[in-house]
Amino acid sequence: MDRENKIMGKIDSVMLLQQKLWDAASRGDNAMVRILAASGVDLNARNEDGFTAYNLATQKGHFNTALVILAARDMAYEAKLGFAPAMTQGIETERKSA
């Protein structure tokens, strides 16, 4: 029973963080989006209406917040591939100057 309670507590805390992300995206709160992204919250998770944080930010006209979410998604993907953010910084510069 204690193990079940711990699991349910973790699920509740994950859902609370997800809700905070969706709320921050809807408000255009870039700082909170960055904090939550850095904590590992799922940026691709959908709310009960089927919208991601990116969808919510763009619907409300918070385009800078949408860009923050896209950048955080890219960084999370690069981290999964084993790249440190600094390892890929020069790539974009090289592409733009080519």
Question: What are the salient characteristics of this protein?
Answer:
98 residues; mainly alpha; 5 helices
How do you describe this structure in short?
The protein has 98 residues and is mostly helical. It has helices spanning 2-27, 30-38, 53-59, 63-81, 89-97.
- End-to-end C-alpha gap: 61 Å
Strand portion: under 5%
Give the % helix: over 70%
Counting H and I runs of at least 4 residues, what is the number of helices? 5
What would the average pLDDT be, to the nearest integer? 84
Number of beta strands: 0
Which class best fits the helix and strand makeup?
mainly alpha
Shape: globular
Radius of gyration: 16 Å
Low-confidence blocks of residues: 92-98
Question: What are the secondary-structure elements, in order, as H or E?
Answer: HHHHH
Q: Report the major sheet.
A: none
